[in-house]
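Sequence, please.
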């Protein structure tokens, strides 16, 4: 299969492909999604096949507006209207109970709930409208690897496997959306993202809880990224706390020889290394935007045996960054002797 790169003026053709059951990757403000018509179960099954993704992992349904969710949702949490007004379109996925048989179990992972998001990307919103159906859109990459933040990343992973990629440049945020479960009495964050616990609590004036349990092998996760290994390059990743960089670099050079650094300029300028991916500046925003690109770049360069990665405090946006980095590093921190 030839994988075509589409520009905004080719939306009609991209939408036709989706209506015909083909897969087309699309841009969002977070990462690129692998699109299929959410109402065509056979197309959705191909998403799992192309990604190599376990089929019990539910998919996020991307909509063009809140009205599109009403076809599927049984009832809404009392806070829904306030959340939608403040955070949609945007990097926030909401989980609702759904009407029986309104969505295929292939989409929901067999659950009685489904996840919905309105992405903050005008081209993709128009694509959904032209398709005249919501789109599933897990990250457009090989399952488990760093998510794609450019069309080139998608092409690298899925060339020849999907019909096309809608190119809108690099994403702005760089990590997947926050997933907020509204299917119970209390709002619970299942996956942290750019819409932080702090931002939600400020708007809602209620406590928002963080779900930290590990999903068992026999249990279906309610949201993507809760159960399986995610975001990991082939090159081993080790997280390094600010005070440990001198010893960590010395250790890595002795143990692995070829060392790569994934960090801000204030850290990378201090050390010699086989390879670097330097965040644009020392802020958590730059680190989050560059995390997946950095992991991909260093891994694909093939010049290093280990990647030493900068850590941040696990509050606000740092919670999203560290959630992904911990999984990429299999929870491994450098430990002093």
């Amino acid at each position: 299969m030839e994988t075509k790169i589409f520009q905004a003026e080719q939306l009609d053709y991209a939408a036709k492909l989706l209506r015909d059951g083909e897969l087309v990757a699309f841009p969002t403000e977070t990462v690129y999604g692998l699109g299929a018509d959410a109402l065509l179960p056979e197309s959705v099954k191909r998403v799992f096949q192309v990604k190599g993704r376990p089929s019990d992992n539910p998919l996020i349904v991307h909509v063009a507006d809140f009205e599109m969710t009403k076809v599927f949702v049984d009832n809404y949490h009392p806070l829904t209207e306030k959340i939608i007004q403040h955070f949609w379109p945007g990097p926030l996925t909401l989980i609702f109970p759904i009407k029986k048989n309104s969505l295929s179990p292939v989409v929901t992972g067999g659950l009685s709930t489904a996840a919905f998001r309105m992405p903050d990307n005008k081209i993709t919103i128009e694509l959904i409208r032209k398709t005249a159906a919501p789109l599933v859109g897990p990250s457009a990459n090989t399952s488990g690897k760093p998510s794609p933040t450019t069309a080139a990343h998608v092409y690298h992973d899925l060339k020849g496997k999907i019909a096309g990629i809608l190119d809108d440049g690099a994403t702005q945020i760089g990590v997947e959306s926050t997933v907020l479960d509204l299917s119970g009495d209390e709002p619970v964050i299942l996956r942290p993202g750019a819409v932080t616990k702090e931002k939600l609590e400020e708007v809602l004036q209620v406590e928002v809880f963080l779900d930290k349990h590990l999903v068992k092998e026999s249990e279906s996760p309610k949201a993507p990224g809760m159960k399986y290994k995610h975001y990991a390059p082939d090159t081993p990743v080790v997280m390094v706390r600010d005070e440990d960089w001198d010893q960590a670099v010395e250790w890595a050079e002795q143990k692995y020889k070829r060392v790569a650094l994934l960090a801000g300029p204030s850290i990378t300028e201090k050390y010699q290394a086989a390879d670097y991916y330097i965040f644009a500046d020392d802020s958590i925003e730059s680190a989050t935007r560059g995390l997946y690109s950095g992991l991909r770049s260093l891994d694909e360069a093939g010049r290093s045996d280990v990647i030493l990665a900068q850590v941040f405090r696990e509050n606000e946006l740092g919670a999203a960054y560290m959630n992904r980095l911990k999984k990429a590093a299999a929870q491994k921190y450098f430990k002093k002797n």
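The chain is about 30% helix and 15% strand.
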